[in-house]
Every structure is written in structure tokens, then in C-alpha cells.
User: Fold DNA-binding transcriptional regulator, PadR family from Reichenbachiella faecimaris.
Amino acid sequence: MKGTQIGEFEEVVLLVVGLLFPNAYGVNVRHEIESQIGRKVVLGAIHSALNRLESKGFLISKLAEETHVRGGRRKRLFQITASGKKVLEINRNLRNELWNQIPDIAWKGLNYGEL
Assistant:
């Protein structure tokens, strides 16, 4: 599984980029994470994660057209690549496999002495 390891935060950012397609850019990703997960995130952390994911080949980006609202500055829009989709699928499958292996008795909260 070398090359498929991403951390929880990177996974969330990658999922949110997919969710926001075709309007996934830093501020929008931050807002969506905060509203969906209830987790406050600084914009610098979002940009760092986006750049890491792009350098790993899990995202691609392009500059959008200039807008008057942004004073002529262009947004960098992100999109998941095929490799990004694959790493998300691998992570989801791994979690599901582990989840499905937990015996029902483990959820009952019994102590070892009660088994």
C-alpha cells in the first residue's frame, strides 16, 4: 500500500474537494469542512493539505478566471484525479474490512473477566 497513505485531515480535504466539484478552492473547502464536520480549520492548513495532495498526484488544479469580487485575483480550483479516487477507495475499503471484523461482543462493553 505504499503511496496510498494519507492522514485523516488529508482524507477529509480530498473528500470535500470531490463534494465541492467544480468549485473547490481553499476558502470554500475550509467553509465546507467547518460546516460538515464542525471542525475549525485555519486557511493555511487547508492550503498546505491541498498542495501536499497535489504533489502526491491526488489532486490537480487550475486558475479560474479573474473576478471583480476578488479584486481581479484568480481562485485556484482543485479536482480529484484518478489516483486520488483510488486512494480514497483503498482507505474506505480498508476501514470497512476492519470494521466488519470487529466481533459483536466487542460492542457490548463487557470486561475481560465477564467473557
